[in-house]
Every structure is written in C-alpha cells, then in structure tokens.
Design a protein that fits this description.
This protein is of the alpha/beta class. The chain has three domains: 3-116, Alpha-Beta Plaits, CATH 3.30.70.100; 127-241, Oxidized Rhodanese, domain 1 (3-Layer(aba) Sandwich), CATH 3.40.250.10; 281-336, no CATH class. 30% of the residues lie in helices and 19% in strands. It has a five-stranded mixed sheet, covered by helices on one side. A hairpin with an 8-residue loop joins strand 13 and strand 14 (292-294). Helix 6 runs parallel beside helix 7 (207-218).
C-alpha cells in the first residue's frame, strides 16, 4: 500500500456497521497511550494508517505532537503482526496495552479513524505553565483498595458524570462534570479541604490521571498518586490475583460496547421512568437526537429504542425537513440537555 492509496472511506455509517457485523473473525479490543514527542503528527498518522489498515484494525486513534491515544480492535489472527510492528516504532516502544475486560456481543468499532489533534486528551491546560512530567506515583489494585478503606485518604474519580453514574469506586469523590476539562478546572478548589490528605486518582485507562496528577501537584497537593492502567487494569488484577473488588457496577468505555461489567451491582436508574434500576446505555434511535441515555428493558421496548415518543415521531419526517431540524436542534437545544454525549452527524 502506498501513500496515494490512503483514500477516504465513502461507505455510509450504516454500511460500515453492516460490513463489520458480517466479519466473524475473533477480535481483541485494547487501548494504549504514550506521551512522546512526535515531530510530524500528520506523517505519523499516515504511517499508522498504512500499517494498520491492511491488518483489518478498527478503532479511534488521536495523534498529537505530545503523543498518541488509541482505542483499537484487532483481528486475533493479526495480533502478533500488529504487536511486532508497534514495538519496532521508536515512538511506541514499550507501550503498555490495556486489554478489554470483556469483548461484548457487538464489535467494539466499525471503522478505523485516525485524527491529528492539538492534544491527545482535551484538557484545556497550558502545558507551558507547569511541569507535565511531574506526575504522581502509580497505585496497584491492592494499593488502590487500601486507599478506598483509608479514612485519611481521598479517592477521586477523574471521569465525566455519565461515566461515574454506572460505575465508580466505593466512597469516591465524583464531581458532577461533563468534560475532563471542566473537572481539571474545578478539582484544585474542590480538594482544597483535603490538601493534607493522601489523594488517589483513577480513570478508565490511566491517561487522564497522568495529566491530572501533575496538575494537582502544581497546585500544591504533595501526596497525589493514581491507579496504573485505570479501571481496566484494576479489573484484570482483581480477577488474576483474587483481590477484593471495590469497584461498583460497570466501567463506561468509548466504543460500541459502551460499558464493561466490573462489579455485579446495578447502581444507576433508568433515565426514562426514573424508577427502575438499570445501567445499560443506549443512543436514541432518532439520529437528530442521538441522545445517550440509560434505559431499563421495559422502557426501551415501550419506546422502541427512542429516548422520547417525540423522537420516534421525528423519524417519520421527510429527509430535507429532518436535516433542517437537526441544525436547529444542535444549535439551540443540545447544550441544555442533561445527559447528551454525542452530536448528530449531518
């Protein structure tokens, strides 16, 4: 494959999903990140595409001059070839993989998307204003449990509210925020009363805590540590080492599965009836809305996968009118919705 062969995939979203669904090959889902200087992010992006597309890799990868953040699904038959290639790249040598806790009943991704970004995680921080490499020390799963049990320690969830709603560590501080950027702005003040305590941070796979721990240390918090490999590695260590599981419920993940089961508890409530315990996320079937919501089986069946009966009615409108409605909805309504995560594609 040559550079000239990198072409935009013109298949529709529906077609991409359909094509992946009929591919019966077993796959491995994993994530990894690496803070490393990348001199030519665009060139590196093209290099990844040329190497991974022929292997049938699917996923979402962000590349910036500060490094790489990847969530990816790889056919098992090509795993060794993929891993060998990764480990021979100077920018990726020694990278730590976080393998999915469960694969789920649907493919994790349905396309390979590699994007060049300003940062591999949108944090809103000026990296020139503090020492980003002055991160907190790592915690193992056993050590994390010690923090959870320790009344003199504070465990902080560095994820967004729709993630913490379905799963979190027992007793964790969970700021009500919708973005990592928002949480970083609020954390120094929220934790001010705990400044002399031990602080343990955790997130999905560890990447957000790298920057967050350095940011808190910059703001005067001296005893800050974070869970190595995040909730994903914690779940593996719990199972492999027969450790007590202190994580309640599900771990939200940013792919088609939407979650992985870690604890057995159901700690969230259906957004539709607001009564029944539920922890399964759905996207509203109305693509103008595309609202992310938690639904119980009865409500999802009653509303046929829509978050409201009004959304079901919208799907019967002519395409031209729906497109105009989508633009209006995105501009005037979406920002006011309480549990929206993704925007409609128009």
């Amino acid at each position: 494959m040559t550079m000239q062969s990198i072409q935009k995939d013109m298949r529709s979203r529906t077609q991409k999903k359909s094509d992946v669904a009929v591919d019966a090959r077993p796959r491995t889902t994993l994530s990894f990140y690496q803070y490393v200087q990348i001199a030519d992010p665009i060139g590196f992006k093209n290099k990844l595409s040329l190497a991974w597309s022929p292997l049938g890799c699917l996923g979402r990868i962000y590349v910036a001059d500060e490094g790489i953040n990847a969530q990816i699904s790889i056919p098992v038959e090509h795993w060794e070839q993929f891993d060998t290639w990764v480990q021979t790249q100077p920018e990726l040598q020694g990278v730590s993989y976080k393998f999915a806790v469960t694969e789920g009943t649907v493919p994790s991704f349905f396309k390979l998307m590699i994007k060049v970004k300003d940062k591999i995680v949108a944090d809103g921080l000026d990296d020139e204003s503090f020492i980003v490499t002055n991160t907190g020390d790592y915690l193992t799963a056993r050590e994390m449990n010690e923090y959870v049990h320790d009344s003199e320690a504070v465990v902080v969830d560095m994820r967004n509210n729709y993630e913490t709603e379905v799963g979190h560590f027992a007793g964790a501080l969970r700021p009500d925020v919708v973005t990592f950027r928002d949480e970083l702005q609020k954390m120094p003040e929220l934790l001010r009363v705990h400044k002399n305590k031990k602080i343990a941070l955790y997130c999905t796979g560890g990447i957000r805590c790298e920057k967050a721990s350095a940011w808190l240390k910059h703001n005067g918090f001296s005893d800050v540590r974070h869970l190595e490999g995040g909730i994903i590695d914690y779940a593996h260590q719990v199972r492999e080492q027969n450790i007590e599981n202190m994580f309640l419920g599900k771990n939200f993940v940013f792919d088609e599965r939407l979650s992985e089961q870690v604890g057995s508890e159901v700690i969230a409530t259906c957004h539709l009836c607001k009564k029944t315990k539920a922890d399964t996320h759905y996207h509203c079937q109305n693509q103008i809305c595309n609202n992310l919501f938690i639904g119980c089986d009865a409500c999802v069946e009653r509303k046929k996968g829509y978050c409201a009966f009004a959304c079901q009615s919208v799907d019967f409108l002519p395409p031209a009118y729906k497109k105009r409605l989508a633009k209006y909805f995105n501009f005037y309504v979406r920002k006011r919705r309480p549990f929206v995560k993704t925007r409609i594609r128009v």
